[in-house]
Amino acid sequence: MELYNGERPSVFRLLGKYMRKGLYSILTQGPIPTHIAFILDGNRRFAKKHKLPEGGGHKAGFLALLNVLTYCYELGVKYATIYAFSIDNFRRKPHEVQYVMDLMLEKIEGMIMEESIINAYDICVRFVGNLKLLSEPVKTAADKIMRATANNSKCVLLIAVCYTSTDEIVHAVEESSELNSNEVCANQELEEANATGSGTVIQIENMESYSGIKLVDLEKNTYINPYPDVLIRTSGETRLSNYLLWQTTNCILDSPHALWPEIGLRHVVWAVINCQRHYSYLEKHKEYLK
Amino acid sequence: MDLKPGAGGQRVNRFVDPISYHFLQFLWRTLHLLVSLWYLQVSMVQMIEGFLISSGLVKRYGALDIDKVRYLAIVVDSEEAYQISKVIQLLKWVEDMGVKHLCLYDSKGVLKTNKKTIMESLNNAMPFEEAVEKDVLLDQKQMTVEFASSSDGKEAITRAANVLFMKYLKYAKTGVGKEEPCFTEDQMDEALKAIGYKGPEPDLLLIYGPVRCHLGFSPWRLRYTEMVHMGPLRYMNLGSLKKAIHRFTTVQQNYGT
What we know:
With 290 residues, chain A is of the alpha/beta class. Chain A has helices spanning 11-27, 43-49, 56-75, 94-113, 115-120, 136-148, 165-195, 215-220, 265-277, 279-289, and strands at 35-39, 79-86, 123-128, 155-163, 230-233, 252-254. Chain A has two domains: 30-163 and 228-289, Decaprenyl diphosphate synthase-like (Undecaprenyl pyrophosphate synthetase), CATH 3.40.1180.10; 164-194 and 212-222, no CATH class.
């Protein structure tokens, strides 16, 4: 599967495609990660390095993103998550924030207009995060593409915007609290029904005592599921920057030195190979934590 | 290394085309063998470099600005954590380097179980809880050591969630609180402290184990923590430790701005 780009395939492009297929046929002899997450770090440094105009790094980064997603989906990776915009990024200079929002809007609208391409490759697009912080036009466009691709099931692209892990955890606590408070109210009504009345006691079979919010409640209410198998952060940075802190308990953290616009097939392949090397160790650790 | 066949889209059916299947399996195993040889070569270079740094032959790592490491965390693979003598040696190096606050983590709690043995082996260290109780966290004379396991991660956050939830129910009953629960990150911080989780966010997290993975260290405490993979505990050396800390002291974070 390739992302359509409107050009007639050249000889080199066809050769590249078949070489990739050959490589994938070798890699798929081992377990392929179900979910790869990316932190798109280094766009601004790339622009500085190549003396590009403002925003040039982000544009180059978007092209790199399309390539990387192509490689993932060709390889059989079902879920890809990208960290597009952090809540912390709102502290950048206003014109820079606006540029990123405008670029996001432009790219989302581009995907909507070429809807048949998204549907042709069966990609379900989901925006995750505190979407209330998005400007109205971006939010509307995001809602539109999510509705348009809701029934696609082959691959899933999760785009984390206005996202931080700590905000996600607090959100999960809020959702769990709301669900549990309904349960508490329902139990109280039953208790009151038992206590009142003309001496008639209503027997409720299997009435369980209320035990509070459980870990599984929080797990269900995080924005991003399933959890990634490998997280790639470019630019050689070794921190998570408040991204997927909850979901990376059993996730390999990979930090190639390449800036995001420089990321290529070799980085994706290297991450998959490392995943295969440590597959049984991480599966064992997951079982222990269950 | 796991060598189970995968379930990718281009899997060759071993019964339909056995020659292709076996040939691809051979290529896959050869690829992984080459990668393993590559990692072996990298480990040997790192060991030699570590030895040179430990001997003081590499001047660059002579003086470390250890004050930049306000809080260090060490994650150890639980199977390797049974090598208590290695863990003690590592902590002695950390103590000698002047680190003041340390958190030791392994997911199964092996290090917690051996807390007494570990603390008795250190010259001048105090358990973190005792330092908090005596309010001597800012005292630079002793190294404080916190022991953590997986129960101090997501499960602790769940307990803190229940603290917030009970407060919400209380306000909801009195009719004072909002209709829908609405919490802040500061409230979550307070709830964790209220149930005894007062450990701060580490500046640097060193991972001793086969994989670069934090293995369930508290998600609430990892926002901007630099994570460095040090390799298996049995190959640890002072030089690699110095190099990791030196590299950390040169990192500049912009915290998303």
